[in-house]
Amino acid sequence: MPDHTDVSLSPEERVRALSKLGCNISINEDITPRRYFRSGVEMERMASVYLEEGNLENAFVLYNKFITLFVEKLPSHRDYQQCEVPEKQDIMKNKYKAEILKKLEHQRLIEAERKRIAQMRQQQLESEQFLFFEDQLKKQELARGQMRGQDSAVLSEQTDGSSLSCFSTHQNNSLQNVFADQPPKSDGSDLADHSPPVNRALKPAATLSAVQSK
């Protein structure tokens, strides 16, 4: 038998489960019918209170128990015919009313169950939509974080490249300055201008004799 607390049941199935819950009652031959009648009065009163409060489930279950007990079960009690108590007359009058109320409650309970299921599905849909949007926001935030990381890496590479370029330019300028400070190499004319003087005393003796004879 389906459990009446199972919220996945359809309205009709859940009401049938509540009906079976109300019908699940038995009598004990050792308990006098008088006690059952007195309990029935209290049962009917509590069902009316639940009905006034709008607690349809409890009212429906109690009315089912009331009808099952006093229409189906208790008449088979061995002392039922000999029992004449005021409560019995009240029960006999109220059992027809209880049957009518049970039928009305049956329909009202089905309508209430349909509304409850529709509301539950709406809440489930809203929850799924919220989780979907939350997941999308997380993915977007993760993508933005990855893009920021890539931009930082590119900027770091550009910064390192600029520093290296500046260092190379500075090194080239330094080398140029070194070469510019060195004196230029001498060509052939410079060698002629700076030739050592001739020492005439070193000329050959023949040349010197010729000069003296003149």
Automatic annotation (TrEMBL):
Domain of life, source organism: Eukaryota
Gene Ontology annotations for the cellular component aspect, listed alphabetically: endosome; membrane
Region: Disordered, residue numbers: 175-214
Cross-referenced Pfam families: USP8_dimer
GO MF terms, alphabetically ordered: K63-linked deubiquitinase activity
GO biological process: protein K63-linked deubiquitination; proteolysis
Protein name, UniProt field: AMSH-like protease
Species, as recorded: Cricetulus griseus
